[in-house]
Amino acid sequence: MRIRYSYLLCSVLLLSSFLSGKAAAQMAAENAAIEDNSFLVEEAFNQEKNIIQHINMFTWNPEAGGWIYSFTEEWPFPGHEKHQLSVTLSAVRNSDYPGSGGGMGDTAFNYRYQLLGGGGKRLSFSPRLTLIAPTGSALYGRGTGGLGIQTNLPLSVYLSKKFITHWNAGATIVPSARNEFGDRATASGWNLGQSTIWLARPRFNVMLETIWQGWQSVSGPGTTEGNHALLIGPGVRWAHNFKNGLQIVPGISVPIGAGPSAGEKGVTFYLSFEHPIGSTASE
User: Which of the two ends of the chain, N or C, has the fewest CB atoms closer than 10 A to its terminal CB?
Assistant: First the structure.
């Protein structure tokens, strides 16, 4: 998998994942189940009252040497579980720019509204709106070079006690994107995603995620070129629960390219910490 920032931007903002919600409604119990810790497809569960989450995700291409790391901090809006605020920071090494090294990527400020359902409900829907700040260098392929807006429509459906599916559709627009030569143009992107999660155990899940992305990159003054990618990501996640409500969820996925991305391979490492406000693992 060639790690191109313009290609991974949607993944970072969507998954860090972009952007999950609560790990379980019963966080205070040691047997709390995993509920929202996906890698490529956003789930439709907001944070519960007084529960916060810290999400780390690292995607690496061992062949080309490119990588992208993201950190997402999620908070429920005070007193309103239907509202969720979060911020995603990222660092990037773009293998399309040899010798450029790694550096800060763009930053995402996110708002999500729990329009329907929530954690544990059979059907959930929580639209998200994101402001993308151009904190990454377009010169080295680490950012879009302009202020952008993104939206995503995540839908989660429990098929049974053992299987849950997640569905995504979204779009991104950067009115004044920039390339490494300083050319600017309006660039757009689109994303579709689907995942099926097998709840093999309350604290061990098997995942199969699929995402399609289309995006435009600036090719000259006022002009863009289109790109497409299709990834299938088998993976697993598991949970370590503590008496005070802290839940630690590690996970690993192996995204494999298909169709326009055939032959691309990578690996994604995930680590999430979720806990009531003010708690620590030592309590």
Answer: C
